[in-house]
């Protein structure tokens, strides 16, 4: 789904993994909500989503892994609350380049 610019709000449910580069360069995304079914966020999944300001997890989240560069250059994203089952974070998973 690279370079799609008309998506602003994303709700992800009924899948286990957000694939590598799934929302790569979707610059208009402002918010993402992740259901409890998601256990993995792949490499570069939300990289360069430069207008992303809100990223939330279901309170019963099963997330255990965030891949490399998953949130690269999400310059408006100020915080992420990591779920309690969290186990692994890839190299440079959350990095902002300005």
Main features:
98 residues, mainly beta, four-stranded parallel beta sheet, three-stranded parallel beta sheet, 0% helix
List the helices and strands and how they pair.
Layout: E1 9-12, E2 17-18, E3 31-34, E4 40-41, E5 54-57, E6 65-66, E7 88-89
Parallel strand pairs: 1-3, 2-4, 3-5, 4-6, 6-7
Describe the structure.
The chain is an all-beta fold. Helix content is 0%, strand content 20%. The protein has no helices and seven strands. The chain has strands at 9-12, 17-18, 31-34, 40-41, 54-57, 65-66, 88-89. The strands form two sheets. It has a four-stranded parallel β-sheet, with no helix packed on it. It has a three-stranded parallel β-sheet with strand order 1-3-5, with no helix packed on it. The mean pLDDT is 87.
Summarize this structure briefly:
The protein has 98 residues and is mostly beta strands. Helix content is 0%, strand content 20%. Strands 2-4-6-7 form a 4-stranded parallel beta sheet, with no helix packed on it. The chain has a 3-stranded parallel beta sheet with strand order 1-3-5, with no helix packed on it.
What's the total helix number?
0
Structural class: mainly beta
The average pLDDT score comes to 87
Spatial strand order of the main sheet: 2-4-6-7
DSSP helix fraction: under 10%
Strand residues, percent:
15-25%
How many angstroms does the end-to-end distance come to? 24 Å
Biggest sheet architecture = 4 strands, parallel
């Amino acid at each position: 789904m690279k370079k799609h610019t008309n998506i602003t709000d994303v709700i992800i449910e009924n899948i286990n993994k957000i694939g590598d580069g799934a929302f790569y360069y979707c610059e208009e995304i402002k918010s993402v909500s992740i259901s409890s079914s998601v256990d993995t966020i792949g490499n570069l999944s939300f990289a360069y989503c430069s207008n992303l300001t809100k990223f939330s997890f279901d309170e019963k989240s099963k997330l255990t892994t965030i891949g490399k560069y998953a949130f690269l250059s999400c310059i408006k994203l100020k915080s992420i609350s990591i779920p309690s089952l969290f186990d692994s974070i890839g190299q440079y998973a959350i990095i902002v380049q300005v």
